[in-house]
Design brief:
Blueprint: H1 10-16, E1 21-24, E2 30-32, H2 33-49, E3 57-61, H3 66-76, E4 81-84, H4 91-100, E5 103-109, H5 113-123, E6 130-133, E7 140-141, E8 161-162, E9 164-165, E10 175-177, H6 189-197, E11 206-209, H7 216-227, E12 231-234, H8 240-250, E13 254-257, H9 259-267, H10 270-273, E14 283-286, H11 293-303, E15 307-313, E16 316-321, H12 323-328, E17 332-336, E18 341-345, E19 358-363, E20 370-371, H13 375-380, E21 382-383, E22 386-387, E23 391-395, E24 401-406, E25 411-413, E26 416-418, H14 420-428, E27 433-443, E28 447-456, H15 464-475, E29 484-487, H16 501-509
Parallel strand pairs: 1-12, 3-4, 3-5, 4-8, 5-6, 6-7, 11-12, 11-13, 13-14, 14-15, 28-29
Antiparallel strand pairs: 1-2, 9-10, 10-20, 15-16, 16-17, 17-24, 18-19, 19-23, 21-22, 23-24, 25-26, 27-28
Helix pairs in contact: 1-2, 2-3, 4-5, 9-11
Domain AMP-dependent synthetase/ligase: 14-364
GO molecular function, one term: acid-thiol ligase activity
Organism: Saccharopolyspora elongata
Amino acid sequence: MSLAVGELGVFNIAQADPGRPAVIDVTGRAVSFAELAERANQLSHALRAMGLRPGDSVGAVIHNGLPYFELRLATWQSGLYFTPINNHLAAAEIGYIAENSEAKLVVVDASLTELCGPALDAAGVAAELRFAVGGSPGWRDYEELFEGKPRTAPDERTGGEVMLYTSGTTGRPKGVRRPLTGRPPTVSQYHLDFMGRLDIEPGAGVHLVLSPLYHAAPGTFAFTGLNFGHTVVLSERAKPEEVLRLIDEHRVTATFTVPTVLHRLLRLPAEVRDRYDTSSLRSVVHAGAPCPVDVKIRCIEWLGPVLTEFYGATEGSATAVRSAEWLTKPGTVGFPLPGAEIHVLDEQGEPLPAGETGTVYFRSGISGIEYFKDPEKTATARHGDLITVGDVGYLDADGWLFLCDRRTDLILSGGVNIYPAEVEAALLAHPEVADVAVIGIPDEEWGQSVLAIVQPAPEAADGLAERLTAHCRERLAGFKVPRRIELSPQLPRTDTGKLLRRELRASYWGA
């Protein structure tokens, strides 16, 4: 099935190819495009009947499942903001986001109602506007929203938006809000260009979800893929071999992941990897953290030139790069997307020449954002109409972006900048390292010194720390070699694989 631009979108595909599988959930149950569109229409009518109007917000604390897409589609054609909330947050954090987003109605998985009840009480969400997927005592059943509602599209369709919250690594999470267009919901040229740069095209395809949909990139890629006509296959916390099994079983064409998952896949024995057919893959997109050059080269050698990468954040995306391009400039995170701009500025906000390292600012190719109800944080992150999320990097002479690290992760030792990502990449190249985190710790003489916390591979032998020190000395300048190497059975990471460096620092710096 090949789709023209005007035929894109779940509601159009539901009419043109109603029986095509739209979503396959974690149990293996398939839902067609027609069924999904009808459910979204019913939900749209229900939200209007509940009194929600364009500009209002809907929250959800749910696992990967069909309700995510039903809610996202319904809010998308009703002019509403949809805020999926991390279901691993504490009650107080959930309450803060529900209150800050001004959620009028909230949907929660039945398994999470005990956690979310007090949070929504504190947020002031009315009891009659709380719904539980699967039903829960004291909550309205999510299925009530569909009872007696028309399966046809609502009369007035106006585009809504997703309002996601940043991870809150430097204080309270910030709601990233874009203005509503007032126009009907459509697949934008921006998304066509962005996905095209990552070798993801409309038509027949299968998108595999490996991370929680409440995060920006997994949700965006799954929802866009769905509107491109792809079948979306859901998983939750799939282990490395399970990832390969799903790719083989469903003939997956695209997926989004993070470098940690790529490293774990490479650690599978060759005979295990060879059991599964991955030839259907056209685009394995990664982002979210620096990917060691060695890891990416080995993945390309294994999977072929299907690895694609982009640079961006919840605030927007700015660059992209395909395997063939990356191999000519190893380490780059891409060239600016259509309509996007990248600038590297010094401490005074002045542009730096090619090759010089500074703070990365960007302008995305979509409408501007603000941090909801926080003009001070919005202003702090801006330089004119450019925005930064605190990354440090440089542009080469051809305009390709290279990242060094987050400014907050930078180690300043004896007045010299040390980027943890560079040290971590060197350590991950050692076969006895399963995972690693590098942080700066207090040092009376140098201000900070480099500490590497290593999760050994199962086959690691005694004396690993000494071997790793020698390994680093062969690959890094002396001042970058970790002064200390500690071994740990597990490193703290988010459910998408991002390293929680702040938890490691707390042991040495305090909260």
